Amino acid sequence: MLKEVYHALVPLAVRRHLRLTRFSAPRRARARLWRRTDGRVAVGPLRGFRLAGDVPDDCFGAALLGAYECETHEWLEREVARGWPAVVNIGSSEGYYSVGLARRMPASTVHAYEMDDALRVIGDEAARRNGVANVVSHAAADPAGLAALGLTSALVVSDCEGAERELMDPIAVPWLQHSALLVELHDVPAPGIENLLRQRFSATHDIEVVMQGPRDPAQWARAANISVADARILLEEQRPQDGVHVDSSWMLLTPRAAAAPVHTR
Q: Tell me, what's the pLDDT at 35?
């Protein structure tokens, strides 16, 4: 009914213009920034990382800008500076974190876990394009496999759609007790996950939960030297959990052990 009323009241030429604006504005914003950076992340912790795609339409605007999950950036920068001997990226997808952190931490071994074969191939190609040789690609993660890595500590970045319930277990994976963990929480597929992880890690870690919040387009426009209008478009980052659109949240777990991480070969 509403569709018929819309078509009756709004001329066809206007409807076509609205459709063109709706779908082409994000494409134009991505294309302008892509040309400026040659497809590399513009700002943020992973600045300079060459994205996996060949054209602007292949990329996620917030990732190209460098604002992706920006609520975690301050914590991530601090942990990168600590020089962890290993990085474990669970749910590495197309290599944004695994390859991006491999560039920032060339002395560290990066273990990239991705269960989707096609995404894993794209991640491997991203490593090649960015000239990094310190990424080890794995299929699906499981507690036994993580424990078998034989690590003493690591920087962990986890986005595994609810599997954090099984994987973020310091009993099954002892080296997690001494590691810095960035865990995206998926309360829809894993109800109560925040409280569960607090119970598991409260004795060994300082814990903070950060929520996705409003982003200031003017701030990001200045940082990336783009227009405020483009920044506003590129900052859009709402993602579904089991088909439900929710704002993301992350648990940042910092180990209390005073000693800095030490590289061992």
A: 94
User: Closest by alpha carbon to 250, among 189, 207, 214, 205?
Assistant: 207
- Is residue 7 pLDDT above 70, yes or no? no
Give yes or no for residue 12 having a pLDDT over 60: no
Select the CATH number that applies to the domain covering 69-212+248-265 from these four: 3.30.70.3400, 3.30.420.40, 3.40.1700.10, 3.40.50.150.
Answer: 3.40.50.150
Mean pLDDT calculated for residue range 211-240: 91
Q: CA-CA-CA-CA torsion for 59, 164, 158, 231, nearest 10 degrees?
A: 50
Give CA torsion, residues 209, 86, 112, 43, to 10 deg: 60
Cα separation, 108 vs 97, whole angstroms? 13
* Digit-coded pLDDT (tens) for 84-142: 999 999 999 999 999 999 999 999 999 999 999 999 999 999 999 999 999 999 999 99
**Alpha-carbon torsion angle 119, 170, 81, 208, nearest 10:** 100
pTM, two decimals, is 0.86
Q: Are 10 and 39 in contact (CB under 8 A)?
A: no
The C-alpha atoms of residue 67 and residue 179 are separated, in whole angstroms, by 25
- pLDDT bin (cut points 50, 70, 90) of residue 263 is very low
170-200 b/e (C-beta count within 10 Å ≥ 16 → b) = beebebbbbbbbbbbbbeeebeebbeebeeb
Give the whole-angstrom CA distance, residue 189 versus residue 48.
34
